Amino acid sequence: MDIEQTALPGIGLKHEFTTHTGRRLAVVSHRGGRRDLVIYDRGDPDRACEAIQLNDEEADALVELLGAPRIVQRLNELHREVEGLVSVQLPVTASSPYAGRPMGDARVRTRTGASVVAVVRAGQVHTSPTPDFALAAGDVVVVVGDPENTAAVADILSDG
Amino acid sequence: MHTAELFIELGGIVLVLGVLGALALRAGISPIPLYLVAGLAFGQGGILPLATSEEFVAVGAELGVVLLLLTLGLEYNADELVASLRGNAGGGLVDLVLNAAPGAAVALLLGWGPVAAVAMAGVTYATSSGITAKVLSDLGWIGNRETPVVLSLLVFEDLTMALYLPVLTAILAGVSLAAGATTVAIALGTAGVVLVVALRFGGVIASFVASPNSEVLLLKVVGLALLVAGVAQQLQVSAAVGAFLVGIALSGELAHEARALLIPLRDLFAAVFFVFFGLQTDPTAIWPMAGLAALLAVVSMVTKLATGVFAARRAGIGRAGQARAGIALIPRGEFNIVIAGLAVSAGAHPQLGPLAAGYVLILAAFGPLAARLLQPLITAVGRRAA
Question: What are the recorded GO MF terms, alphabetically (chain B) (predicted)?
Fold first, then answer.
C-alpha cells in the first residue's frame, strides 16, 4: 500500500491513499493541529466530497477505534498460526507494584520466558517497549508466550 | 480640538468598514471591494471627503502593507519555497507570462509608456493569495487533489513579487538602467541571504524572537519587521519585500504563534490600506475606465483559467479539477492594489489608479462568487464525464 505525502504550502501536509475497493482517502494535517479526514468523490477523484474536521480529542478517538483492535487482531492471527502461542492483554491496575516504575524492574522475560510486545496507553499503541519504558496505572500490557508463562506475567503485574 | 476631530473621523471610517465587513461576510464575498468603495466615498470627489485624518490614514496604509506581507511570509517557510521553485517552475512561468501580458498590453496600447506597462503587468499578474486561500477553505477544496498545484502557483507568485517589487520601485523612482540593475542585484542578494539564513540558522533567529509571553513576541516580531522594512526601503528594495522576507525567515510553531498575534493588527491596518487606495482614486475617474476594466477582467479571467488548467493537467488532474484550479486563481486583491498604490504614489499615469481600482473591484468580488456558483456545475459535468 502506498501512502502519498503532499506539502500544502501555508496550510500543512496531506497524506492520501486508495483503498482496496478503489476509494481515495486523505488526512490533511493543518499547522495548528486541526485534522481533516477527506473522502474523495467516486465520479471526480480529485474532489473532496467530504472533509470532516477533527480536533485532537476526536482524532485520538478515531485512532483508538481503528488502531488498538487492529494490533490485537494481528496478534490473534499470529498465535493462530503458531500452535501453543497465546497473546494476552493484561491491565496495569493502580494497585500494581509496577505502576509508575520502569518495565525492566518486572524482569518479565527472565522470570517467565514470555515477551512484552506492546503497551497500549490512552488508545496509543507503544510497540516493543524498552526496559526503561515506565508503566502507568491504566496501561494495558500485551504479552506473547504460552498459556503458563503468560499467566505468570499476570501474577507478576498484579502482585509483584 | 484636532484630536477630537481626528478620532471622530477615524472612528467613523473604521466603524463603516466593520459594517461593510459584516455585509461581505453575509454575502459570502471578500470585503476588499467594499473597503475600496468606502475609500472612494471618503476621498476627493467622493460623497464624504475626509478633512483631518488623511495623514494618519496614509501612515496606517504603509503599516498595512508591511503587516500584509509579513503575515504572508509567516505562512510559508523556506523549505516550502525552495521545494515549490523546484517542482513547479514550469507552471509558474506560464502563469507569469500569460497573466502579466494583458496588463502590460493595455498600458502600451493606451500609450502610457513602459514604466506603467511594468506596473500594470503586476496588477493583472498576481492572484490574491488571501482571497484564494479563503475560497479554498470555504468551499472545502483544501483536500482536493488540484489544491497543491494552486498553492504552489501562489507561492511562486509571492516569490516573484519579492523580485518584482524592487524592480518596480526602482523604475518608478526613474533611476538609470545601471542604478536599476544595482537595486535588482541588491534585492536578489538580500532575498538569497534571507533564504540561506532561514534554512541554515532558522533556530538562531527563532531563539532570539521566541518568548512565552505573547506581548514580548508581538513587539519583537513587529519591531524586527519594521526595522528590516525600513532598511529595505532605504536600499530601494521596497519595504514590503523586507517584511515578506522577515516572515519567511521565521517558521514552525513560532511563525504560527506570531501570525495568530498579528492577524488582528493586520486586519485593521490592511483595511485602512484599502481605504487609502480608494482615497487616492477619484471615483468620477473610474466610470470612464469601467468598460476597459471589465474587458481586462474578462481577459485575465480567461488567462488565469488557462494557467490553472495547464498546471493541473501537468500534475495529472482530471478535467473538473483543472477547471477548479483555474477558477481558484481568478481573485485579485491586496497585491494588485499594493502594486497600483506604488505606481500611483510615484506619479504614474493618472488613469492607472482608476483602472486598477475598477479591475480589482470586479475580480475581488467576482472571483470567489464564480467559484461558488460554478462549483455545482463543475461537479455535475465531472460526474457525467466519469
Answer: antiporter activity
Instruction: Tell me how far apart the alpha carbons of residues B257 and A33 are, in angstroms, rounded to a whole number.
Output: 12
Integer Cα distance of B76 and B247 in angstroms? 8
Q: Which has the higher per-residue pLDDT, B235 or A52?
A: A52
Q: Give the total residue count for chain A.
A: 160
Task: List the single residue in A10, A11, A44 with the smallest CB-CB distance to B383.
Answer: A44
Following DSSP, what letter does each residue of B232-251 receive, concatenated? HHHTTS-HHHHHHHHHHHS-
Q: What is the CA B108 to chain-centroid distance, rounded?
A: 23
- pLDDT for res B309: 94
CB B218 within 8 A of CB B261: yes
**Quick one: pLDDT at residue B138?**
81
Contacts of B77 (CB under 8 A, 6+ apart): B198, B202, B248, B251, B252, B255
Q: How far apart are CA B275 and CA B64, in angstroms?
A: 11
Q: From the CB of residue B172, how many other CB atoms can be counted at a distance below 10 Å?
A: 20
Question: Which residue range forms the structural domain that includes residue B273?
Answer: 2-385
Which CATH number characterizes residue B316's domain? 1.20.1530.20
CB contact under 8 A, A44 and B76: no
Contacts of B343 (CB under 8 A, 6+ apart): B116, B119, B168, B172, B352, B353, B356
pLDDT band at B382; cut points 50, 70, 90: low
What's the pLDDT tens digit per position in B156-213?
A: 898 888 888 888 888 887 766 677 777 778 777 877 787 787 777 777 878 888 888 8
Among B146, B156, B74, which residue's Cα sits nearest to residue A6? B146
Residue pLDDT, tens place only, B121-130: 999 999 988 8
Q: Can you tell me the distance from the alpha carbon of B158 to that of A148, in angstroms, rounded to the nearest whole number?
A: 67
How many domains, in total, are found in chain B?
1
ipTM above 0.90, yes or no: no
A138: left (phi over 0), alpha (psi -120 to 50) or beta: left
- How does residue B99 score in pLDDT terms, banded at 50, 70 and 90? very high
Looking at the complex, does the CB of residue A23 fall below 8 Å from at least one CB of chain B?
no
State how far the Cα of B338 lies from the Cα of B353, in Å rounded to an integer. 11
The partner residues of A8 in beta bridges, in order of sequence, read A12
Cβ contact (<8 Å) for B382 and A40? Answer: no
| Cβ neighbours of A41 in B, within 8 Å | 379, 382-383
Whole-angstrom distance, CA of residue B328 vs CA of residue B312: 12
